[in-house]
Amino acid sequence: AGISVLRKDLIPDMTWTSRLLTSVVAATCLALSPVSPAAADSFPGSAPLPTDFQPEGIAAGTGTTFYVGSLRDGDIYRGDLRTGEGALLVDVTGRAAVGLEVDRSRHMLFVAGGALGTAYVYDTRTGATLAALNLTDAAATFVNDVAVTRDAAYFTDSFSPMIYRVPLLAGGSFGPVEAITVTGPAGGPTPGFGLNGIEATPDGSVLLVNHSDRGILATVDPGTGASRLVQLTGGALVPGTPDGLVLRGHTTWVVQNAAGTIVKVRLSPDLALRGGGRDHQQRGVRVPDHSCDLRQPSRRCERQVRPRLPAAPGTGSAAWDGVRGHRRQGVLSSTEDAVGPA
């Protein structure tokens, strides 16, 4: 297993800073980079991971540092995108690592703990465990993804309509876990995966989530849990596939895992992303020109995304998961995995 790196020029109509996407099951890669072709070419094409690694979440740290988590045991690998070299930062057992996000100002790596109902916080410099948080005692749970704001970390639960809020206190401590029950279109029971990817506005006043089973985007009020559907025009998301999510201003990208695509959605200006416009209907326009099939890329897709997609042995397909990143110019990359289709 390893990560692969490739370059994508900035799409002209949006301001993009690098984000990291991670694969669930197949050897896949994507890189978005606003740097020059010469600078992008200085990055190696791939970076190996330990042979017993089951990569899932990936996050960017400072500079060209990246972090990859293992579903199998919760290990965290830290590497350098420029050199392709790295080593285990966190070597543990009995844990899991799903979605990741780096808080660079606090030197913290937040990790969703999957079916264990937990979350972990590690020191990005030393790998020391700063916190092991029990988010829920529910028998059926899957803590999937995390978004970090100035004052809290928010974790989605894919097996119940819950978002768990962990307050971030002064001195690097954490407040009691607060369970937020999501109501409305993104709430209620679901037979499979429900809440999945999560993002937050810069001020933390609105959360943006996707719902895997229903194939929807929705905003969530973190104070009440009330969700509102983002009405899409120009096409729909594929139910059962929405997974990773990234938000930049009024543009969001949705990773559709089993469909092997990434969908760009332009959100309407009256979308309630900064506390205003809550009385308006929320709308988003799916942009077909930027919806690329990562399993069988067309020439157009190759021009936009430039994917190199070595298929997982015996699968011939690529599936995608979470999105995590940082606000600096650089390279967007994904982990590589070869454990078979989801």
What keywords describe this structure?
342 residues; globular; mainly beta; five-stranded mixed beta sheet; single chain; 2 helices; four-stranded antiparallel beta sheet; disordered C terminus
Task: Furnish the topology, listing elements before pairings.
Elements: E1 2-4, E2 19-23, H1 37-41, E3 46-48, E4 55-60, E5 65-70, E6 76-80, E7 86-90, E8 100-103, E9 108-112, E10 118-123, E11 129-134, E12 143-148, E13 152-157, E14 162-167, E15 178-181, E16 195-200, E17 207-211, E18 216-220, E19 227-229, E20 231-233, E21 242-248, E22 251-256, E23 261-267, E24 283-293, H2 299-305, E25 320-325, E26 334-335
Parallel strand pairs: 20-24
Antiparallel strand pairs: 1-3, 1-26, 2-25, 4-5, 5-6, 6-7, 8-9, 9-10, 10-11, 12-13, 13-14, 14-15, 16-17, 17-18, 18-19, 21-22, 22-23, 23-24
